[in-house]
Write a structure and sequence with these properties.
There is one protein chain. With 226 residues, the chain is an all-alpha fold. The protein has one domain. Helices cover 81% and strands 0% of the residues. The protein contains eleven helices and no strands. Helix 2 packs across helix 6 and helix 3 packs parallel to helix 7. InterPro entries: Gap/Sap. It comes from Winogradskya consettensis. Pfam families: SfLAP (PF11139). This is Sap-like sulfolipid-1-addressing protein. Keywords: Membrane, Transmembrane, Transmembrane helix.
Length: 226
């Protein structure tokens, strides 16, 4: 559970779960209803995808019928993710991405989506849909759950808790923003600017941590260290 909680907190720092909410909190006319609608859309999308992937992974695990084989696959995936993290070293990322950053593109999408509730839902689906291709902490969490000997209801409960924890930091920031109003605007701007500059470079750390947690979990289950 500790590994799952750590992975959820890592997932909470992505563009869709933290950076876009931060920009919404910094708009002159904050709309809490639109904020919650957007965040709820992201959470629901992640949960639905998680259930689908967990069901598929569980079916594969039952078909194999050997938890050790699943754990070996988990170990291989963890090593691959850790190795891949070096490709996303910050200097290499800056050389590849050029002058137009992903943060700039998302800010443009947000500015056009604030006009209607349906546009916010569409933005939430777009953010979650694009990030689902790189939702590596979530995939690592599903891998840990699949390799664990737990019942399907327990997996569903764990996924629900994961998604709630994933959006919790954004909800806490909303509560702070509503309570303290303009007094927290400067700290929020600082965090937003930092994340906007480093959002792609952070992916390397996400890959490394997710890979390490998968390797650690597999090593414990396989009793490789005795």
């Amino acid at each position: 559970m500790g590994a799952l909680a750590l992975l959820a907190l890592i997932d909470s720092t992505s563009v869709g779960t933290l950076l876009i909410p931060l920009w919404m909190l910094l708009t002159p006319k904050l709309r809490p209803d639109r904020f919650l609608l957007y965040l709820g859309t992201v959470a629901a999308f992640y949960f639905a995808v998680g259930l689908t992937l967990a069901a598929f992974a569980g079916a594969v695990s039952d078909l194999i019928g050997d938890l050790d084989a699943v754990s070996w696959a988990e170990l291989g995936l963890g090593i691959a993710l850790f190795a891949l993290s070096f490709y996303f070293e910050p200097k290499r990322v800056r050389r590849r991405r050029g002058t137009v950053t992903p943060a700039m593109r998302w800010q443009s999408r947000l500015s056009t989506a604030e006009g209607s509730p349906w546009a916010m839902v569409a933005l939430g689906l777009a953010a979650a849909g694009i990030e689902v291709m790189s939702m590596l902490p979530y995939l690592a969490a599903i891998g840990i759950l699949t390799a664990a000997d737990v019942s399907p209801p327990a997996r569903v409960a764990a996924l629900a808790g994961y998604v709630v924890l994933m959006v919790l930091p954004a909800l806490v920031l909303l509560a702070v923003r509503l309570g303290l109003k303009q007094r927290v605007e400067e700290p929020l701007q600082f965090v937003s600017a930092w994340l906007s500059r480093h959002t792609e470079g952070v992916l390397g750390w996400v890959l490394a941590i997710a890979g390490f947690l998968l390797v650690r979990d597999a090593v414990v289950k396989l009793d490789l260290i005795g």
